TrEMBL record, chain A:
GO cellular component entries: membrane
Organism: Desulfamplus magnetovallimortis
UniProt cross-references to Pfam families, sorted A to Z: Oxidored_q2
Species classification: Bacteria, Pseudomonadati, Thermodesulfobacteriota, Desulfobacteria, Desulfobacterales
Gene3D superfamilies given in the database record: 1.10.287.3510
Family, similarity comment: Belongs to the CPA3 antiporters (TC 2.A.63) subunit C family.
Protein known as: MnhC
Compartment list: Membrane
Membrane spanning stretches: 13-30, 37-56, 119-139
From TrEMBL, chain B:
Official protein name in the record: MnhB
InterPro entries found in the cross-reference section: CPA3_antiporter_subunitB, MnhB, MrpA_C/MbhE
Gene name linked to the record: mnhB
Organism name: Desulfamplus magnetovallimortis
Keywords of the record: Cell membrane, Membrane, Transmembrane, Transmembrane helix
Na+/H+ antiporter MnhB subunit-related protein domain location: 133-258
Keyword Lyase: no
Annotated TM spans: 67-85, 132-152, 164-183, 195-217, 237-262
Family the UniProt entry places it in: Belongs to the CPA3 antiporters (TC 2.A.63) subunit B family.
Length: 161, 274
């Protein structure tokens, strides 16, 4: 029973670890290069899920501040821009100060989920697609060179000269 | 190798599973990841950058260097695909043409195909029949995909979106065009040269925006320096700087996605493909 509660409490991490191990197994044990690439992508997906789940906070919303119709920082910032356009430096600074004040008053870190993992994974996904392209290009090059994508057959050909 | 792999993943997996007990609980407000930097980002993003979408402001402002080099990585990946796969078109290649009035398909060696003739149409060696439904649906959808992509890029400050997502959507629209029609039609509209120029221009816009701040006399990628240039105060200048950078990212990502697709789908020949 203790083990069961232990598993349930960390069930999300268990899922990522299992997914990660599936990817790692494919990377180590599979003979076909394309299957290795698929394993690499599964591994990457596990990492992305792990990071995104770290960013979650209970009772928090997406990391986009409430704004728009209310008289929050947005309107004040617009006011500041207007003042700066008129060349009155002091007014602009005051407005900037007001913006800062409004931001501090309205925004609590508890209400918004952690944006940092999302930023990291946002770039990681796109870079992952680009590197997947390079991996597939390399696989195509290998196929053109050796006529096969099976690793043992490539090794055999390399050994034979 | 299989046994070795099984042993490795069993040991790794068991160790990782065992030490998950040290990890914070699901949705823990006081987890280490949410207590150091992220409260600062959440609480100061409006006063620092005037951007309500914290992800955008962290992406392009607080972590501007990271994103710049991510864009460079994407450009490098596109170039790597190009250098690995691209082979110049050889004259010894053979192509297939269909004589429209009779429906006879002929194979032409080299470059001696009937130029300027409108009774012959070029077809791929693995030719699939023209599909009206797919073609029509894709042609109808592509405009809206591109429009939505531009919205995602431009509205990244206030809603989920930004350069990476919009760039991928723009790239996907051209790839969809290439899949639904054929590769040559897509290359005719969005050529390889365009892809190369756009991808490097995107990175150049990002680095150039940073360097411009440097030339004005502040730190690299400190968009506040652009304030007098853009006619806004220092905080709104950060918001506009982020937009400039996002446009650069979108251009680079779009061009690289399309470029990689062209090279992969045609094995570097860019003559016929998916």
């Amino acid at each position: 029973m203790e083990l069961f509660s232990f598993i349930v409490a960390k069930a999300d991490y268990w899922a990522y670890v299992i997914l990660m191990m599936v990817g790692l197994y494919a990377l180590i044990a599979k003979n076909n290069l394309v299957k290795k690439i698929v394993g690499m992508t599964i591994f990457q997906t596990a990492i992305i899920l792990f990071y995104v789940s770290i960013g979650y906070k209970k009772g928090a919303t997406i990391p986009i501040l409430h704004h728009g119709s209310d008289h929050g920082g947005e309107a004040l910032a617009a006011h500041g821009a207007h003042a700066a356009a008129h060349g009155t430096q002091e007014v602009a600074e005051q407005a900037a100060h007001a913006v800062a004040h409004a931001g501090e008053a309205a925004v609590k870190a508890m209400d918004y989920i952690n944006p940092l993992p999302h930023v990291l994974m946002l770039t990681a996904i796109v870079v992952g697609v680009a590197t997947l392209g390079v991996a597939l290009a390399l696989a195509m090059k290998v196929y053109k060179e050796y006529g096969t994508l099976e690793e043992d057959e490539i090794n055999q050909q390399l050994r034979n000269g | 190798m299989k046994i070795l792999g099984k042993i490795t993943i069993t040991i790794c997996g068991l160790l990782l599973l065992f030490f998950t007990s040290d990890f914070p609980d699901w949705g823990d407000v006081n987890s280490p990841a949410s207590t150091h930097l992220s409260p600062y980002f959440i609480e100061h993003t409006i006063e620092d950058t005037a951007v309500p979408n914290i992800v955008t402001s962290v992406l392009a402002d607080y972590r501007g260097y990271d994103t710049m080099f991510e864009t460079t990585v994407i450009l490098t990946a596109g170039l790597a695909c190009f250098l690995l796969l691209r082979i110049p078109r050889k004259d010894s290649i053979h192509r297939y043409y269909r004589h429209e009035p009779t429906g006879v398909t002929i194979r032409v060696e080299g470059d001696r195909y009937p130029k300027g003739s409108n009774v012959f149409t070029r077809i791929d060696s693995s030719w699939v029949p023209y599909d009206l439904i797919i073609n029509f649906t894709c042609r109808l959808l592509i405009h809206f995909i591109q429009l939505f992509a531009l919205y995602v890029v431009a509205h990244g400050h206030h809603s989920p979106g930004g350069g990476f997502q919009g760039g991928v959507l723009l790239g996907a629209s051209v790839i969809l065009f290439a899949i639904s029609g054929n590769l040559r039609a897509a290359i005719k509209r969005f050529g390889e040269k365009t892809a190369a120029i756009l991808s490097s221009t995107g990175v150049f816009i990002y680095a150039g925006a940073g360097a411009l701040c440097l030339f004005i006399g502040e730190q690299f990628l400190n968009y506040s320096a652009l304030g007098p240039l853009l006619g806004t105060d220092r905080i709104m200048a950060r918001s506009h700087g982020i937009l400039i950078v996002e446009i650069g990212v979108a251009m680079a990502v779009m061009a690289v996605m399309i470029w990689i697709y062209y090279n992969l789908s045609s094995a570097g020949k860019q003559d016929e493909g998916l």
